[in-house]
TrEMBL record:
This is Glucose-6-phosphate isomerase. PANTHER family: GLUCOSE-6-PHOSPHATE ISOMERASE (PTHR11469:SF1). The lineage of its organism: Eukaryota, Viridiplantae, Chlorophyta, core chlorophytes, Chlorophyceae. NCBIfam families: PRK00179.1. Pathway: Carbohydrate degradation; glycolysis; D-glyceraldehyde 3-phosphate and glycerone phosphate from D-glucose: step 2/4. GO terms for cellular component: cytosol. It catalyses: alpha-D-glucose 6-phosphate = beta-D-fructose 6-phosphate. InterPro entries: G6P_Isomerase, G6P_Isomerase_C, Phosphoglucose_isomerase_CS, SIS_dom_sf, SIS_PGI_1, SIS_PGI_2.
């Protein structure tokens, strides 16, 4: 059951060598490969064999001497990372941090220097976090106790770390270099990845150069990408980031990319508004080709195309990103025009697969998107190989975990001072909250601490005129400030003392310091502020933030940012001991919606009200009936296609 998973033993050996107490093995509780159903004697024998190969003789003897009860206790999920000495050390350390203020911590230049990291062209400043060198040391100790290095290695090796779905987690493979080797169950998957990428390049080149034409012989210069969740938010983030980047914008001249995600018909109307069906190509993104919202939208757009171009237009105007070739063919799309991906790519981590690269290559060309993949791959290498003390995603993940689990800050504001990054916050919101919004550990045990954070954000300076009031004088909300050295679009007006971008960045620098330092009553009195206004104008400060600067907002650096934020989330989950790669919390609402869908159809076709006896509570039944009373009566299934007049 655990043969080959020596990373567990390495982590165990570190724990043993620190504590010399073989009855407490916290690492076992975070290793998904130790099944509670596994034979205890087999585990003990396997441990003995593996230990003799991988750890010191002293540790091997101690591991082999474990009795069956000790092994069973550790496999039962009876403890969590919160039961480790490393966690408790951080809990005790909070009292020391509470005695400090960031205005004093920032006066220590040596401390600031140690917390400013420059790597891969990125500048990341952790000095405004409420941490000291000792905090960082304790956080790294916690990461080691959680087996973080082994878990990172396990992810890159294709181990099935998504235990509830029995899947590997290998979004890193979707941006691997052609010469890399990434194994899944003994097979190098990189050639398969590049087979799809080469197919994307060939197809997107044909569409862009006019070799692939629509049903009436016109070039297809407009693309509508239909997908929801990770099939939408990630690609939209990248598209928004590249719209005004000079080289990408040049490649997109004369082209248009729209996204259709929401099943609300308003979104359909907006996505299709102004488009000529003769010039429109539709990309339907659904791994199983059964996603309810996506497929209803796909059928709607298919009907829009057919009504203008005839029943045989689908093969020329619709392609798919899916693995279900049977349903793709039944839908009317030629299976040869389906672009695959794999079950080891989670939806919210799928931007670098065909999910994102196909529509984005149609807009910007494959060469631009290859730069994006190279940037993400660069950050993957950094994450995999860099020591924790200088590892950007690891430090971001650990400081966020410190803020959430120890400092009690439940939210994070993503604040890019770059309009091109305006869709980073919604994308990260899904990556973070869907990944780490969990209440149990890998073994299904209820956690004694909160995981995840409430993520939100807006570009600066828009956010300053929206929610910064709360951030400065209300709740403490840690912030990520993201700035760019060279703007995509430079403007300088004669007579102005700074350029437009300099004005933006002045705010970037000022806001982080305002949160850290605040403003004291003494400072206000020195400015002759009336006493009655002092409580209203005082700023407590001591509010943590992170500052990131990228040299420019290009396809490459957007790829770096995407991967860095993805890995930050993984670090949190690995240390908390949760599964960051499933999302069972989204299922219940879908099931209930399906039940209501059936009731609504019956109400329409049989002209009757919905009753609590239909298996629904009184409140919901009354609300549905109120909704139906106000609708134009459409009889299903005898009705006919009805579209907004400006579409059909």
């Amino acid at each position: 059951m655990i043969l080959g998973h020596t990373h567990c033993l390495n982590a165990v050996s570190r724990t043993v060598e620190r504590s010399q107490n073989i009855t407490t093995l916290p690492t076992f509780n975070h290793c998904t490969h130790l099944s509670r159903a596994c034979n205890i004697v087999t585990v003990r024998n396997t441990i003995e064999i593996e230990a003799k190969r991988t750890v010191s003789a002293r540790v091997a003897r101690m591991l082999a001497s474990m009795d069956e009860g000790s092994i069973a206790a550790n496999m039962s999920g009876g403890s969590t990372i919160a039961d480790t000495p490393e966690w408790k050390a951080l809990q005790e350390h909070v009292a020391e941090i509470d005695k400090t203020h960031l205005r004093d911590l920032m006066a220590d230049e040596r401390r600031c220097m140690s917390l400013i990291k420059e790597s891969e062209g990125l500048y990341v400043d952790f000095s405004r976090q409420r941490v000291t060198a000792e905090t960082v040391k304790l956080l790294v100790n916690l990461a080691e106790a959680a087996g973080l290095r082994e878990k990172i290695d396990g992810m890159f090796k294709g181990e099935r770390i998504n235990s509830t779905e029995d899947r590997a987690v290998l979004h890193v493979a979707t941006r691997a270099r052609r010469d890399q080797t990434i194994m899944v169950e003994g097979k190098n998957v990189v050639p398969e990845v590049w087979e799809v990428l080469d197919k994307i390049k060939s197809f997107s080149d044909k569409v862009r150069n006019g070799e692939w034409l629509g049903a009436t012989g016109k070039p297809l210069t407009k693309v509508v990408a239909i997908g929801i969740g990770g099939s939408f938010l990630g690609p939209l983030f990248v598209h928004t980031a590249l719209k005004t980047e000079p080289s990408a914008s040049k490649q997109a001249a004369g082209r248009q990319l729209n996204f259709l995600a929401n099943v609300d018909p308003i979104d359909v109307s907006r996505a299709l508004k102004g488009l000529d069906p003769e010039e429109t190509l539709v990309v339907v993104v659904s791994k199983t080709f059964t996603t309810a919202e996506t497929m209803l939208n796909a059928r709607t757009v298919r009907q829009w195309l057919k009504s203008h171009l005839g029943p045989d237009c689908v093969s020329k105007h619709m392609v798919a990103v899916s693995t279900n070739l049977k349903l793709v063919k039944e839908f009317g799309i030629n299976p040869e025009n389906a672009f695959g991906f794999w079950d080891w790519v989670g939806g919210r981590y799928s931007v670098c697969s065909a999910v994102g690269i196909l529509p984005l290559s149609l807009q910007y060309g494959f060469d631009v998107m290859q730069q994006f993949l190279m940037g993400a791959n660069n950050m993957d290498d950094h994450f995999k190989n860099m020591p924790f003390e200088n590892n950007l995603p690891v430090l971001m993940g650990l400081t966020s975990l410190w803020n959430i689990s120890f400092m009690g800050y439940p939210a994070l504001a993503i604040l890019p001072y770059c309009q091109a990054l305006s869709k980073l916050a919604p994308h990260y919101q899904q990556v973070s909250m869907e990944s780490n919004g969990k209440g149990v550990d890998m073994n299904g045990k209820a956690l004694p601490f909160e995981t995840g954070e409430v993520d939100f954000g807006e570009p600066g300076t828009n956010g300053q005129h929206s929610f910064y009031q709360l951030v400065h004088q209300g709740r403490v909300v840690p912030c990520d400030f993201i700035g760019v050295v060279r703007s995509q679009q430079s403007v300088y007006l004669k007579g102005e003392i700074v350029s437009n971008h300099d004005e933006l960045m002045c705010n970037f620098f000022a806001q982080a310091d305002a949160l850290a330092y605040g403003k004291t009553p003494e400072q206000l009195r020195s400015e002759n502020v009336p006493d009655y206004l002092i409580p209203h104008k005082a700023f407590t400060g001591n509010r943590p933030s992170l500052s990131i600067m990228v040299p420019s907002c290009t396809a490459y650096t957007v790829g770096q940012l995407l991967a860095m934020y993805e890995h930050r989330v993984a670090v949190q989950g690995f240390v908390w001991g949760i599964n960051s790669f499933d999302q069972w919390g989204v299922e219940l609402g879908k099931v209930l919606a399906s039940k209501i869908r059936t009731m609504m159809n019956q109400s329409r076709t049989k002209s009757r009200v919905i009753l609590p006896s239909d298996g629904i509570n009184y409140s919901t039944a009354r609300m549905i009936n109120k909704y139906l009373e106000g609708k134009t009566q459409l009889l299903y299934p005898e009705g006919h296609d009805t579209f907004p007049v400006d579409l059909l």
